[in-house]
Amino acid sequence: MTDKPMLILIAGPYRSGTDGDPRAMAANLAHLETVAWPVFEAGHLPVIGEWIALPVLRSAGASPTDPLADQVLYPTADRLLAHCDAVLRLPGDSAGADQDVATARRRGLPVYHDVTEIPRRTPQEVI
Q: Is there a contact between 11 and 87 (Cβ–Cβ < 8 Å)?
């Protein structure tokens, strides 16, 4: 158990295996989001890189299949990892998620492969 909430990056397939199909990417994002509640329920703050990167792309007039996406998606995750305390790597082929894991390990951050591995936060009294 821990008394400090962790910011946990949820990493897994987003564009991988979709051939640029927006519905498939949306389904992948929805799959990543399925573990947001269990991470939160354990007392931590879940974050997914696409939650930040996609609005950045939209503000640049681009989509996840635009050539600009590689200049936004991967750097967003890298910048986000500078603030994260851990990574939860979900199954599935993903170069970006593998890169997130490698970055986390270089920075000495824990990498979990199942939400049950994440330490539960000790409840704190709200004052």
A: yes
